[in-house]
Amino acid sequence: MQIVWNVLIVLVMALGPRLMVSLSKRVKVLGMLGSVFLCYAGGFLLSLVLPDTSIAMDISEILIPIAIPLILFSADLTSIKRLAKPMLNSFLLVCAAVVGVAVASYLLYRNLLPEAYKYAGMIVGLYTGGTPNLMAIGAALSVNDSHIVLANASDVVVGGVYFLLLISIMPKLARKFLKPFDAGVQTVVDEDAAYTEHLEKNFVPEKEPLSLKSLLRRVPIVLLGVLSLAIAAGLSLLITGGLNVVVIMLVVTSCGVGFSFIKRVRNAPGSYTAGQYLILVFSFGIGLSFRFSAIKTESLIFLAMFATAQFGAILLHLILAKIFKIDADTALITSTAGIYGPAFIAPAADALKNREVVLPGLICGIFGYAIGNYLGIGVALLLKALGG
Question: Among candidates 8, 52, 84, which has minimal Cα distance to 360?
């Protein structure tokens, strides 16, 4: 009977995210919350009526190290050479601002939050890469599942407020503070409409619907993700004598980056979509395993830390952009790439009324996915070594 029940939970986890994606597209308010948050919520609501969901956590734990390489397989990291100097400099300033503010947040909250160094690492991964990096770093550092949910909730609330500003008044305000965009200056070297279309197709989920069916059609590329996990597990056993999650996450990230240099892998359709779907399945599983009893009084402080970090990083980046004479459009599109990832580049460019920044924005977002895990885990381990 237990086997049948476990199979049922697996099916719920596999199919639940498809329903959440459909709801996010059909109901505007739910769409603003995002598919990841809806999967958390949907899983949690089901956990209230399902008597035993313990297997959900066991399954969830192996999905992230498979999803990360899948997300990176389509990344053409040599494209970073296409970025013109102002665009590259601005994205590097985004990374510097996020790291600086994450460290400052750690110093501010370390006496209030146990293991604040872990949350600083998650902040770096989230705001240089995106949600996949947040989850990967959280798993690597053994962060409590409830805090992973809270981190995403904070990102939905605070990130939602900033995105509304970004597509409304922020372009006008930024152009008063920063110099205007110069249409005569290149944003990329060798502008290529076909290449822009390739990136949008591979890294913007709306172009290719997320579904279990789309995942099953991509079994070969998913198996390559599984192989990446097997390589990581093997190296972890060889290096540490056990399954060290930090080593595993860093190795699967490296496998994703490494395999992306193989043209056949990079051009394989749907690896990003498959990876994103696994992220949603993971989120649904976390929701099924979530218990309110795990949330303690420190949760509001935890949420405050993430809110402080996001707005602090945005403000610091704008100040750095002013100092280094970065124009308003370049600053805002690279900020979007770091905070939200490739999927939000097109609406941000529309708000700026500047399609010239789409390609460099996509490149920056993809580059953020690739470096987010290294930066986040590196910052967390450094802070731990310096004082925990």
Answer: 84
